[in-house]
Write a structure and sequence with these properties.
Length: about 120
């Protein structure tokens, strides 16, 4: 599976963006997918994840209530809707996938990665 992340850009604080992660190469339906982000000078961190079973979701505390992860298996796409963006959300956002029914908050548990898309939030 090849992953392509897109949708990043420059937005003012309080604004919204929707990121997309499109999979190609094989079906996305039996993969669990996560979004991670890496801010300048910081380590990559977990943002959100969605299981392929029942589409259950998990979020980092820092984004819960502001971000929403969803998927459209017919389009082989996972989305990250980001609302009420803050300056500290500025980062390169990566989507990652693994062919397991459960998600993980650890980047090392994912073996498929997209190239990243930059989100810049101006204060």
């Amino acid at each position: 599976v090849q992953l392509q992340a897109s949708g990043g850009g420059l937005v003012q604080a309080g604004g919204s963006l929707r990121l997309s992660c499109v999979a190609s190469g094989r079906s996305f339906s039996r993969t669990s997918v996560a979004w991670f982000r890496q801010a300048p000078g910081k380590e990559r961190e977990f943002v959100a994840a969605i299981r392929w079973i029942r589409n259950s979701t998990a979020y980092a505390d820092s984004v819960r209530g502001r971000f929403a992860i969803s998927r459209d298996n017919a389009k082989n796409t996972v989305y990250l809707q980001m609302n009420s963006l803050k300056f500290e959300d500025t980062a390169v956002y990566y989507c990652a996938a693994r062919q397991m029914s459960t998600t993980s908050r650890r980047e090392y548990d994912y073996d498929m990665w997209g190239q990243g898309t930059l989100v810049t939030v101006s204060s």
